[in-house]
Specification:
With 156 residues, the chain is an alpha+beta fold. It contains one helix and eight strands, in the order αββββββββ.
Length: 156
């Protein structure tokens, strides 16, 4: 009889601990997995958007195209797992002479972000603008001027 009581004293708290610990551990692991998946999709979208910006720049950078005004409807999803996201871009000029565009996408309601970098030529300018994924008019605008300068921005 004493052995049964000792077993209950030892095993019952362990069973109760497992009732609370197992769901908590599963929740933490699932939240981590979901955040990783969302970040991966956001990074993929940022890379696609950066590639689109670079392709438009390279297309307009030919001397055979004197002046142009291009609007590109972006082929990115308006929502990722039900969340809208925003994007901002900044241009820096390293010592090499070419300019580097850094594109950052962020979810609106979740604290996750992803960054993509794109190398462009020295004749590019970025006009401050914000990309809104859920905008029905989200696009990329590019203007090539007669002095060979190419101005890029997000349109809405």
């Amino acid at each position: 009889m004493a052995h049964v009581t000792i077993e209950y004293i030892i095993l019952v708290p362990l069973l109760i601990l497992q009732i609370f610990l197992l769901p908590f551990a599963a929740s933490v692991i699932m939240n981590s997995w979901v955040d990783s998946r969302r970040t991966l999709v956001l990074q993929e979208t940022a890379s696609h958007l950066g590639s689109t910006i670079q392709q438009i720049y390279l297309s307009l950078n030919y001397t055979a195209i004197p002046v142009a005004n291009v609007t590109n409807k972006l082929d990115v999803p308006p929502f990722i797992e039900g969340y809208a996201y925003t994007g901002i871009a900044t241009v820096t000029e390293p010592a090499s002479g070419s300019k580097v565009l850094e594109l950052t996408l962020m979810f609106k309601d979740v604290k996750l972000s992803a960054t993509a970098t794109v190398t462009l030529g020295e004749n590019v300018e970025w006009r401050d603008s914000t990309f809104m994924s859920n905008s029905t008019n989200a696009c990329l605008q590019a203007v090539k001027y007669s002095n060979e300068t190419i101005q890029l921005s997000f349109g809405s």
